[in-house]
């Protein structure tokens, strides 16, 4: 890869840090099995899929929706102890809150839940995309990315971004035992990204990989437009693995 | 993943096209063994690395530089029949021209080679990145991406984008026989992206995967900022594999 500086990065980076004190093992992640996972937009395909995977992994899961009734009926269908609640209730009762709402409702939903999400670990997995005859393309939120919009709207929450590149079809298919893919996790605080990585690792086949700060979330969100093209060309449900890690 | 429409894409996409006439096998790629590969910026780390890999795979390779002397001395070091030439000479004598110049010189170099690159298949692999204390971050070219800038500056060339996520360290290391990674290939014409995919497939361990049109190049270029973070955290030379493909 060719970049702005003379530094042959990213390849040059490991050498740069090698002289420093030994870093903490990046695979030493906390035990998150006791955390309650809330999923806003939990009645949508992506939300239902994630709820199914986390519940199946033994995590306590609450799916949120604008309508309590819809949330409860979706939860009942999912089984595995998944609960359904109104978004505000889901947010206040959960330790980690995954934001899986459609991009159109993203800002409005988060604004309305500012109090309930205060102090919570928020995981944004929204991909702002447009679609036309030529396929999908990236939209650029004013804040830079959906995750940065969330961080701007939720100053008292700990905002991270993850779970962008998963196929909702695979997530929701109960016949599929493993989903072999990596989950890129972005955030500003290592304690928070470690928790999200550990959560990703609870799902069979998945691995959470730290992939930078929120200012680099846009390209991770937008890459879904490329996966749409991959899926069309190869009739696949494409995901990503990070190699050499 | 959650997107703008109700369509559960990218997962929903395969189903959409399933009703159409059977598509051409996406892995049926042309024989490119006879093509001459030019590498502009061939004396830089990325350029030298790609030249080494293509020459090793049996491809005829010409590396280009502003200085004929520097190009020739780099070519001699590389061996395997690699030639060195001034950029203009490299461009006119090659069938496929890889652009591996630093982002700062990108527009100027391409503008100056418009005539030599007319009719050629151009493969842009430049990642516009900035670096500061917090690491790497994406720059956004006025045209949307380096590849779109190339397409705007070279209206008579066939512009594609590929080879963004490769570690220059691994590419250049003669002890490494295989580089197990996928190469995302973007472009407007299937004939062109097929050639670039086939070229990627000439390198041991690599596979060229079609990943969309040039309007979706920015996120592919920018993702290198995330790989820089991955490399720092895990002391790795990260690359990417596309799963389920």
Descriptive overview:
Chains A, B: Keywords: Oxidoreductase. 2 copies of one chain form a homodimer. The first copy, chain A, is an alpha/beta fold and about 240 residues long. Chain A starts with 12 loop residues before the first helix and ends with a strand. In chain A, the strands form 2 sheets. Chain A has an 8-stranded mixed β-sheet. In chain A, strands 6-7 form a two-stranded antiparallel sheet. Chain A contains 10 helices and 11 strands. The N terminus of chain A is likely disordered. In chain A, helix 5 packs parallel to helix 7. Chain A has one domain: NAD(P)-binding Rossmann-like Domain (Rossmann fold, 3-Layer(aba) Sandwich). The first copy, chain A, is globular, with a radius of gyration of 18 Å. Chains A and B meet through helix 1, helix 2, strand 6, strand 7 and helix 8 of A and helix 1, helix 2, strand 6, strand 7 and helix 8 of B.
Structural class of chain A: alpha/beta
Q: CATH superfamily of chain A, please?
A: NAD(P)-binding Rossmann-like Domain
Briefly, what CATH class of chain A? Alpha Beta
Spans of at least 5 consecutive residues with low confidence of chain A: 2-9, 11-17
The CATH topology label of chain A is: Rossmann fold
GO molecular function (chains A, B): coenzyme F420 binding; cupric reductase (NADH) activity; ferric-chelate reductase (NADPH) activity; NADP binding; oxidoreductase activity, acting on NAD(P)H
Biased composition (Polar residues) (chains A, B): 1-10
Pfam families (chains A, B): F420_oxidored
Keywords (chains A, B): Oxidoreductase
């Amino acid at each position: 890869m060719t970049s702005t500086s003379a530094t042959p990065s990213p390849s040059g980076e490991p050498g740069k840090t090698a002289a420093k004190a030994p870093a903490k093992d990046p695979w030493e992640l906390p035990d998150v099995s006791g955390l309650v996972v809330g999923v806003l937009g939990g009645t949508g395909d992506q939300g239902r899929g994630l709820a199914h995977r986390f519940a199946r992994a033994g995590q306590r899961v609450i799916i949120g929706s604008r309508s309590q009734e819809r949330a409860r009926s979706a939860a009942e269908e999912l089984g595995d102890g998944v609960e359904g609640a109104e978004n505000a209730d889901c947010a206040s009762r959960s330790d980690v809150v995954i934001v899986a709402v459609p991009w159109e409702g993203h800002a409005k939903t988060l604004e309305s839940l500012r109090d309930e999400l205060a102090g919570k670990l928020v995981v944004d997995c929204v991909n702002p995309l447009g679609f036309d005859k030529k396929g999908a393309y990236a939209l650029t939120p004013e804040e830079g990315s959906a995750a940065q919009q969330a961080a701007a709207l939720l100053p008292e929450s700990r905002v991270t971004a993850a779970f962008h590149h998963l196929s909702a079809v695979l997530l929701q298919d109960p016949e599929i035992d493993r989903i072999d893919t990596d989950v890129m996790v972005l955030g500003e605080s290592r304690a928070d990204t470690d928790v999200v990585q550990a959560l990703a690792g609870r799902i069979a086949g998945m691995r959470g990989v730290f992939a930078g700060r929120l200012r680099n979330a846009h390209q991770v969100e937008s890459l879904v437009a490329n996966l749409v093209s991959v899926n069309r060309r190869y009739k696949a449900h494409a995901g990503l693995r990070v190699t050499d890690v």
